[in-house]
Amino acid sequence: MKRLIVAAGCALAMMTGSVQAADWKDIRIAFDVPYEPFEYKTPDGELTGFEVELAEAMCEELKAKCEFVIQSWDGMIPGLLARKFDLIMSSMSITPERAERVLFSEPYYNTPGGWFARNDFNTDVTDKAAMKGKVVGVQRGTTMDTYVTEELSGVVTVKRYTTADDMVLDLEGQRLDVVFVDYPVGEQTVMSKEGFKEVGTPVKLGEGVGVAMRKRDKDLAGKVNAALKKLKNDGTYDAIMKKYFTYDIKM
Amino acid sequence: MPEFIAELLNHNDIFNATTLMHYWDGLVTTVQLVFLSLVIGLLMALPLAILRTVKNPLVSGPVWLYTYLFRGTPLLIQLYIIYYGVAQIPGIQDTFWWTIFREPFYPALLAFTLNTAAYTTEIIRGAIVATPNGEIEAAKAFGMNWAMRMRRIILPNAARRAVQAYSNEVIFMLHASAIASVVTIVDLTGAARDIYSRFYAPFDAFIFVALLYMMLTFILVFVFRKLENHLLKHQRPAGS
């Protein structure tokens, strides 16, 4: 009898285990809005954006019913761990620190770093000899900061800023010759003003942005990776990307 | 002890030779900035404090307005106005002023100097006003004129009364200099912020820099205690 109970218990445990594993028919995905053009609300309240459309396509691929959750950035990882939602698709860059707490999928996009300057700037940013003595602005602690510090230290003067706005002010006031920022940020801050232009070509940096999951949900990670791979290969990804970007962010 | 330090340096990722040099550069910048602004500020404050005690409001009024403005607004705002505001003046980039204001060091030095001069002016004024009437009357009875009274009686005694309050101002100035890092100056705090964002190690980066600030404060406290002992020698009980 005792043996039977144990066997039944084991069977039950296996069953529930397998049920949970197969149970990715309802998935809740968290976004932090607004972060244009990745996720934002249209004037009539509809959630849209590059990552939202990609999530919709992914859910279709997974044959799952998806619910979209709005979550502010501070509570993102705690909310995931507290099971308020199952996936984060909110432009979360893959870093070793975050990877200690969550499980990342393969990266699905990476915004490049862009060079921006005033219209009178005529130096080739890839030419180290020409760049000598120039003053370059970066946001402190970004992948762009690391890139400039490692590639150009000793050649240019690096000035580090906390916010992009302060940096743009100093570019405007001619304290900086050129800035190197996350491309979408540069597009929104520098290029929204008169008298500035993009110089050189965008540079791809860092490990990119991935879908974040709980560490235990390895089966879900496998499915997400397979779905993203399929979307990247069958042209769906490119179609969505072209809707929102004029440059390549595919990874 | 040196082996212990070498051991520590080899076994952590954050405090290696490069980052320690970064802290050292920051320390030099902080000391330069604070020292220069305090010296210039004190030199400005002395005549301003004397003007502030003059009875004619046309003389003391402007000084009052200046100290009121600079004590009435946060140093951070003053720094923002001088650093970002100056760059917005049309055509400034083509004048010789721009060679000075282009670098963040001089706008910060200007803001710190004007700020500390305002506070020091009020400290010295308070000490001058507190001169006992009897001392002034005695000096007059000796036939001293205004300048001689100032030089021999009022200012030396005012210095004795002001030194304790002024030592506080010096320490506050050292700590206030931390905000220089918001205008891209790599001072001690700027160095700590760079290292924090590079290694994501807030405790290590900021506790280390806090210890450096404490070390500088201890030096200042020591120097001012010596100065107080010297100036206030007459107040000590006889025989000590």
UniProtKB/TrEMBL annotation, chain A:
InterPro entries: SBP_3_CS, Solute-binding_3/MltF_N. Coiled coil: none annotated. The keyword Signal applies. SMART domains: PBPb (SM00062). It is found in: Cell envelope. It comes from the Bacteria. Residues 26-248 form the Solute-binding protein family 3/N-terminal domain. Keywords: Signal. GO terms for cellular component: cell envelope. Residues 1-21 form the signal peptide. Belongs to the bacterial solute-binding protein 3 family. PANTHER family: ARGININE-BINDING EXTRACELLULAR PROTEIN ARTP, MEMBRANE-BOUND LYTIC MUREIN TRANSGLYCOSYLASE F. This is Nickel transporter. The lineage of its organism: Bacteria, Pseudomonadati, Pseudomonadota, Gammaproteobacteria, Pseudomonadales.
Automatic annotation (TrEMBL), chain B:
Pfam families: BPD_transp_1. CDD domains: TM_PBP2. The keyword Lipid metabolism does not apply. One of its GO terms (cellular component) is ATP-binding cassette (ABC) transporter complex. Residues 27-224 form the ABC transmembrane type-1 domain. GO terms for molecular function: transmembrane transporter activity. InterPro entries: AA_ABC_transptr_permease_3TM, ArtM/GltK/GlnP/TcyL/YhdX-like, MetI-like, MetI-like_sf. It is a multi-pass membrane protein. The chain crosses the membrane at residues 30-51, 63-85, 105-124, 170-193, 205-224. It is found in: Cell inner membrane; Cell membrane. The keyword Repressor does not apply. GO terms for biological process: amino acid transport. SUPFAM superfamilies: MetI-like. Its main location: membrane. Belongs to the binding-protein-dependent transport system permease family. HisMQ subfamily. This is Arginine ABC transporter permease protein ArtM. It comes from Marinobacter profundi. The lineage of its organism: Bacteria, Pseudomonadati, Pseudomonadota, Gammaproteobacteria, Pseudomonadales.
